[in-house]
Write a structure and sequence with these properties.
Blueprint (H helix, E strand, L loop, with lengths): L12 H9 L4 E6 L1 H5 L12 E2 L2 E2 H4 L2 H6 L1 H17 L4 H11 L4 E6 L5 H4 L6 E2 L2 E8 L6 E3 L18 E5 L8 H10 L3 E5 L11 H7 L4 E4 L12 E3 L3 H12 L4 H8 L1
Parallel strand pairs: 1-4, 1-9, 4-5, 9-10, 10-11
Antiparallel strand pairs: 2-3, 6-7, 6-8
The structure holds zinc ion.
């Protein structure tokens, strides 16, 4: 097999992406709906987000919960079951490898509420839209607990204050969790890999252009063009499952010399 070395024109997009990202000391990977969709977890935001003819906005919202908490919980229990029966795919497992076998530091953040990244071995995942398997107090008294066995907690009242309990997901109209945003800010990334994300959620949506403007490498993996495709250094047109294993393979080449041979 011929390995294309120096000429810029002969480098494939994925090699170019790897060469750029290899320079990042603190690489942020931001996964969107496309990352989980590859594992068979349906996205519910945007087009087609219906369940039993109810719009997802009417389920994943404070108004919806106040009007029909049982129905909202039925939906979330079904989502928990769907996720529990899904398996992490090769792209998610590749992110775990990247975290363990690269020279820089990798922080993985996601707008998915599922636990597939953790089950793939990714550590310290930042959940920007909350956690599907947490049940917490709907009156915000601060009580919260993991509820991933049999949904038992979802059927009870808050043990601390007696109010209703709700899923740990972030609903439409709610701000992103401060702690998650603070962790990204403290990480201070100098490179960004967007995976299956259209990056429309404020304030995270400002991050790609901020980094581009500071001369940091930004790469996206997405089967379709996104609002920031024109600004990023490389757009890899494909799904997370198709693209991530090959990209991570280049980024985790055993030796610096091997890496240099393959991507420079
Ligand atoms: Zn409470």
């Amino acid at each position: 097999m011929t390995i294309h070395c120096h000429p810029e024109l002969e480098r494939s997009p994925i090699q170019t992406a790897a060469r750029l990202l290899a320079d990042a000391k603190r690489l942020l990977v931001l996964g969107g709906a496309g990352l989980s969709a590859d594992a068979g977890v349906p996205t519910f935001r945007g087009e087609g987000g219906y369940w039993r003819s109810v719009r997802s906005e009417d389920l994943a919202s404070r108004d919806g919960f106040d009007k029909a908490p049982e129905m909202v919980w039925d939906w979330y229990r079904e989502r928990r079951l769907t996720v529990a029966n899904a398996q992490p795919h090769a792209g998610q497992r590749a992110l775990s490898l990247l975290q363990r076998h690269t020279q820089g530091t990798i922080l993985v953040a996601t707008t998915n509420e599922d636990d597939l990244l953790e089950r793939a071995g990714v550590t310290d995942v930042v959940h920007l839209h909350g956690d599907l398997f947490t049940t917490r107090c709907a009156a915000d008294c601060g009580w919260a607990a993991r509820d991933d066995q049999d949904n038992a907690l979802s059927l009870a009242s808050c043990p601390a204050c007696g109010a209703k309990v709700r899923p740990g997901s972030i609903w439409f109209g709610e701000p992103l969790p401060r702690e998650a945003l603070d962790r990204i800010a403290a990480f201070d990334p100098d490179g960004l890999l967007l995976v299956g994300s259209s990056c429309l959620v404020k304030p995270v949506s400002d991050l790609p252009l901020d980094l581009v403007n500071h001369g940091c490498p930004v790469v996206e993996i997405n089967p379709e063009a996104t609002p920031i495709s024109d600004y990023v250094a490389v757009s890899l047109r494909g799904t997370a499952k198709q693209m991530l294993p090959a990209l991570v393979d280049l980024l985790t080449s055993c030796t610096v010399r091997d890496q240099a041979r393959r991507i420079t």
